[in-house]
């Protein structure tokens, strides 16, 4: 039997990676590396995934037995996505911070998805990337004085964060929608226009071009904090697409921030 070993970043080689509780009963074939460097493998039907020190995850190759392949496939992409959507409920995309246990749960689910990426070379399949995507989770946060300066504690509410990707033009438009209480500006928005070019089989380099805030009343509110808005939301830099299918995209920027986006109209 042959297998493919996925080695996590060195900084996490001896760290605790938790398997979300709702997936603990799933059957799988995995190998664990203990601190003595010994590998312990399990493929028994009764094995339950638990919170352990995980050094390597063994993915079965085409040479695996039918029984082992069935065990591996029982944790499907659809199941992981369902668990991820459930975990993301009530956290407002993580914009204003997430409790550590919830963040660990989401991170574990994201990594499980990345291990099952159906599009390992996404920049070679640009038709899957084009269109409109809605941010449903990010590790970028607006906390403390930044949140206060932007009025996001009291009279300004943050609406949808959208990413419009035009493959033909090589452009992306990032749209942040705002609702300002008392001014009836339900359609206020901050737009960032950028260009992109392919830098590898799984990444693109994004270059900032311009930004605008509409309507004018909203511009008057945010004018003195435009630099702060760009500091937080400017997409410029390298973006690695680590998971992509017909309705979900996961990526990481050059600073290691995670973004989960869902296709929308």
Automatic annotation (TrEMBL):
Q: Which keywords belong to this entry?
A: Plastid, Transit peptide
Grouped into one coarse class, the protein's main location is: plastid
Transmembrane ranges, per UniProt, are: none
Q: Which InterPro entries match?
A: PAP, PAP/fibrillin_dom
Assigned GO CC terms: chloroplast
Q: Where is the Plastid lipid-associated protein/fibrillin conserved domain?
A: 79-261
Pfam families cross-referenced by the UniProt entry: PAP_fibrillin (PF04755)
Where is the protein found, in the record's own terms?
Answer: Plastid, Chloroplast
The record's comment on protein family reads: Belongs to the PAP/fibrillin family.
Q: Which protein are we looking at?
A: Fibrillin-5
Q: Which organism is it from?
A: Cardamine amara subsp. amara
The opening ranks of the lineage are:
Eukaryota, Viridiplantae, Streptophyta, Embryophyta, Tracheophyta
């Amino acid at each position: 039997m042959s297998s493919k070993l996925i080695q996590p970043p060195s900084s996490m080689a001896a760290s605790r990676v938790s398997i979300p509780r709702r997936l603990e009963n799933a059957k799988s074939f995995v190998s664990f590396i203990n601190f003595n460097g010994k590998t312990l493998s399990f493929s028994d039907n009764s094995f339950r995934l638990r919170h352990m020190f995980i050094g390597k995850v063994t993915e079965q190759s085409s040479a695996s037995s039918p029984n082992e392949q069935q065990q591996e496939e029982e944790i499907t992409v659809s199941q992981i996505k369902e668990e991820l959507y459930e975990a993301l409920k009530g956290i407002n995309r993580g914009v204003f911070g997430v409790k550590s246990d919830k963040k660990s749960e989401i991170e574990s689910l994201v990594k499980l998805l990345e291990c099952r990426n159906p599009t390992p070379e996404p920049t070679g399949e640009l038709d899957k990337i084009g269109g409109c995507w809605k941010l449903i989770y990010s590790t970028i946060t607006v906390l403390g004085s930044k949140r206060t300066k932007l009025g996001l504690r009291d009279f300004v509410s943050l609406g949808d964060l959208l990413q419009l990707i035009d493959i033909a033009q090589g452009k992306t438009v990032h749209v942040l929608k705002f609702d300002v209480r008392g001014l009836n500006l339900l359609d206020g928005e901050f737009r960032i226009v950028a260009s992109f070019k392919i830098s590898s089989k799984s990444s693109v380099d994004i270059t900032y071009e311009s930004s605008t805030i509409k309507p004018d009343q909203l511009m008057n509110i945010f004018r003195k904090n435009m630099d702060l808005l760009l500091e937080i939301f400017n997409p410029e830099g390298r973006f690695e697409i680590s998971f992509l299918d017909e309705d979900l995209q996961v990526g990481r920027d050059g600073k290691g921030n995670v973004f989960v986006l869902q296709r929308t109209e």
